[in-house]
Amino acid sequence: xxxxxxxxxxxxxxxxxxxxxxxxxSGRRVPRLLPLIPAWLTGVPLAMYGAVLLITxxxxxxxxxxxxxxxxxxTTSSGITWFAEFGGLAFAGLGIGLIVAARSYAARTxxxxxxxxxxxxxx
Length: 123
Fold this sequence. Notes:
The protein is mainly α and 123 residues long. The chain has helices at 2-11, 33-61, 77-108, 114-118.
C-alpha cells in the first residue's frame, strides 16, 4: 500500500504540494528529494527482484533449475512455479512503475536557473 501511495504521489499534483490534511505543512511545496529517494531506493530492488522471479520460474518449469518442494497450501511444484511467475510480474511491474514515475517527477520538479530564463529572448 505504501508503494502504491508513493507511486500515486509521484504522478499527481498532490505529490508536489502538501494536502490540507497535513496540518502544519498544508500548502507548502514537498521537498524534491522527499518522494524521489524512497522511489529510487524501492523501485530498483523491486524491479530486480521481479526480474529474478520472472527468469527463475520458467527455468524451474523447464527442469533447468530444481523444482521447489510443495508445502501447504501448495500441492504441486507447478503451483509454486506459477505463484513465483505472477509474483515476479507484480514486483517487476511495481518497481518499473516507481522508476518511471520517479523519473517523470524528477523532470517535472527540476529547478530552473533564474539567470538562464532571464537571458532568453522572446521570439
